[in-house]
Write a structure and sequence with these properties.
- The chain has three domains: about 80 residues, MurE/MurF, N-terminal domain (Udp-n-acetylmuramoylalanyl-d-glutamate--2,6- Diaminopimelate Ligase, Chain: A, domain 1), CATH 3.40.1390; about 140 residues, UDP N-Acetylglucosamine Acyltransferase, domain 1 (3 Solenoid); about 35 residues.
- The relative contact order is 0.06.
- The protein is built from four helices and 38 strands.
- It is an alpha/beta fold and about 350 residues long.
- The strands form six sheets. Strands 8-11-14-17-20-25-28-31-34-37 form a ten-stranded parallel sheet, with no helix packed on it.
């Protein structure tokens, strides 16, 4: 595919400086782009690469490209504009190809003509697949599930009974949606399974990463609202509710019945205990442990950053001494106060 800079500027609603007839054929990094590529800059520390940049055009803000003499597309949010531009060159990997001969589809399934079902997939009774749905090879869609228009289910996804996915959502390979939540009652040392009777309800325009697991609710539903983006290897327990347009990075673990608000950002490796309430607009930085509810929007962190091993051992020793040091400081404060009073 080729596109002129004038056409690209229209699609990005960008201000073009330079040759409107210049053709670009795809993206490249700022350092490695050639005359046939478009690239972008989002951080001022990369301005040093502009001096030798050979790209056909650079997408960026006015301040970042003030001194750049080559072709440029001036935008307010370069990364968003780059995403839109790159999508023009992204191949459609989810083209509908009909129902594969090896797929097993129950006769009660409601199947739109434009649905695609890959090899060796199993679609059980009373499933509803709306127009444009693509089911990859080796998927299992259990009874009474419903998948909305235009959603794409990649290979080897398992969707347990009665779960729903909205419109234009993507589920990547290996994801398991609707497995039983971790519910057991202790009966004098023996564990009695608590039936998990809820569902998983996923909204529109949601993306779920590879090998992520979302457990069904125990009584009520586990809910993933519209626009949520979930990375790979995330564990979401029963009855969790994730608000619209929240993003969750890889290896996050969310315990049961925790509610996360809208427009939150949960970085990689974060752990959240159960039955917490996280308000809208919260960012939790990488590897943090959330042990209590967050009632005010903002950025939150915990944990110990990486440092030299010798220094870490010294700090660890001091950490174990904190309680004793606190008692000694309090005693010294009392003695100092007594001296002042005398």
């Amino acid at each position: 595919m080729k596109i002129t800079l004038s056409e690209l500027a229209k699609k990005l609603n960008a201000q073009l400086t330079g040759d409107p007839d210049c053709l670009v054929t795809g993206p490249a990094t700022l350092e490695n782009a050639g005359p046939e590529h478009f690239t972008f800059i989002t951080n001022s520390q990369y301005r040093k690469f502009l001096h030798n940049c050979q790209a056909g055009v650079v997408i960026g803000t006015q301040s970042d490209l003030n001194d750049y003499s080559g072709n440029s597309l001036i935008v307010s949010v370069p990364y968003v504009s780059y995403a839109i531009a790159a999508s023009l060159f992204s191949p459609d990997l989810f083209q509908a190809q009909g129902v594969h001969a090896s797929a097993v589809v129950d006769s009660s399934v409601k199947l739109s003509d434009s649905v695609s079902i890959g090899a060796n997939s199993v679609i059980e009774a009373d499933v509803i697949l709306s127009g444009g749905v693509v089911i990859g090879a080796g998927c299992y869609i259990a009874q009474n599930c419903e998948i909305g228009e235009g959603s794409h289910i990649s290979a080897n996804v398992s969707l347990y009974h009665e779960c729903t996915i909205g419109r234009d959502s993507i589920v990547h390979s290996g994801a398991v949606i609707g497995a039983d939540g971790f519910g057991f009652a202790n009966d004098d040392g023996s564990w009695i399974k608590v039936p998990q009777l809820g569902r998983v309800c996923i909204g529109d325009n949601v993306e779920i990463g590879a090998n992520t697991t979302i457990d069904r609710g125990a009584i009520e539903n586990t809910v993933i609202e519209d626009g949520v983006k979930i990375d790979n290897l995330v564990q979401i327990a029963h009855n969790v509710n994730i608000g619209a347009n929240t993003a969750i990075a890889g290896c996050v673990g969310i315990a049961g019945s925790t509610r996360i608000g809208k427009n939150c950002a949960i970085a990689g490796g974060v752990g959240l205990l159960g039955h917490l309430e996280i308000v809208d607009g919260v960012t939790v930085t990488a590897m943090s442990m959330v042990t209590k509810s967050i009632t005010k929007s903002g950025v939150y962190s915990s944990g110990t950053p990486l440092e030299d091993n010798k220094q870490w051992h010294k700090n660890f020793v001091r950490f174990k001494q904190l309680d004793e040091m606190t008692r000694r400081v309090r005693q010294l404060e009392k003695e100092l106060k007594s001296i002042k009073e005398d």
